[in-house]
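User:
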Amino acid sequence: MFEDLTRRVVGIKPEEFPADSVWLNTVKPLSLGMLKGHVVVLDFWTYCCINCIHMIPELKWIERKYAGKPVVVIGVHSAKFHNENDPANIDEAIQRYGVEHAVVVDRDRRMWEAYGVSGWPTVVMIDPAGDVVYHRSGEGQREAIDAVIGALLERHGKLGGLATPIEIERPEVKTEWMLSYPGKLSFSPDWATFALSDSNHNRVLLIDIDGKIAEEIGGGEEGLRDSGFEDSLFFRPQGVLWVDDRIYVADTENHALREIDLRARRVKTLAGTGRHGHALRSGVRGTEVSLSSPWDLAYSDGTVFMAMAGTHQIWLYDTQSGTVSLLAGTGFEGIVDGDRLTAEFAQPSGLSVDDDRLYVADSEASAVRRIDLRSGMAKTVVGAGLFIFGDEDGPLEQARLQHPLGVFAQGDSVFVADTYNHAIRLIDLSKRQVSTLVGMDKTKALCRIDDPECDTLGLYEPSDVKLHKDGRLFIADTDNHLVRIFDLDRLILQTLSLKA
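Assistant: Predicted structure:
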């Protein structure tokens, strides 16, 4: 067994980092030469990928266990989407997901090809002698990685081949934001207030539509704790859903569905064990099932719909019985229409119910999907495949999105937070057309430049959009750490000024 853990991977040789590589989360570039005598763990990832996101805490556990040892973890960012090729955007993702190791930008996938990688995430390990000894794809590798590192340190320690651990200095980053990567929002029944998931502050805020913060729910630290508003804990929550005197929360990195009781001023867990789960096949009580990165929520007649990004499915929570069941998706990643139980989704991340139709922002397919809740049939509205994406308006069949995370539907209008295009798009179902309301890029906005009220700051990876009854779109402008408002009548984009 010892030899199995430390033998070379046949046919793959270590490849030095290209000299012109951009390095992030470190003050100076690294090289395999300077890492001789270390166990080097290369994590091939792309920041859109939910499986890659699941690997981050596993790698963080490895880094902390082997702190002070000659073990170095390096992220190799090999992008899927055009937007993910920009080092500035990758750096935002590093901050958003709390990546603690150095990351090299594999812009042309030179390292991807050199190491024979074919999917995200893939972990490659190089032993202290400079040989590739591990090559495996998929999440859930922590135990295997740990075992190999332990065996390598023992073996090369006996051979005298270990180096003094290198110290990697990380750059300082700005963290003093009133909001930190806000994710999703939901209006109160009287339209006077909205709930906002302030994701990286691990809290939910209640904000009136003029910007005054009325309530802060969550202690700010990462954790899973049911308690009162001040003492309860969340972990990077995303979806929020305001129904009567309750707010449901997709507590994403706790893999849980939480409930905020506004009358009792308490938070409790409705579904999830706090552990990362797998695809759902049959119904089970909420407190007995493990969720997998729930990303957004929607509601109809006592049922909470959950976009289960981690299993590529749509789950249901029955508010009366407390049971969780499957609405749609096989658990395989794809873009396949048909009966809800045989249909395939690709990291669903946004939901909206309109009458008897559930709309889905299917992020990895760069698509908007629709499930008919009466017939149970799933259909693609916009989108063509897992690797077909872009920034194109026009007929539904020709229009292209890029990793959308948010959707809101009302009648024939479907508003989309087209995240990686830094845009808000409108799908007009009656005309079968897609148009851009706000977009172009992260530094420009479609508004009247000569209007003094026009805010020239564009959107930066917006994650959600909701239509207020007054005709304004409220937008979670995630990487700008802001809430934005777009007036559909005056075509003006503005920033909501928040007041504590």
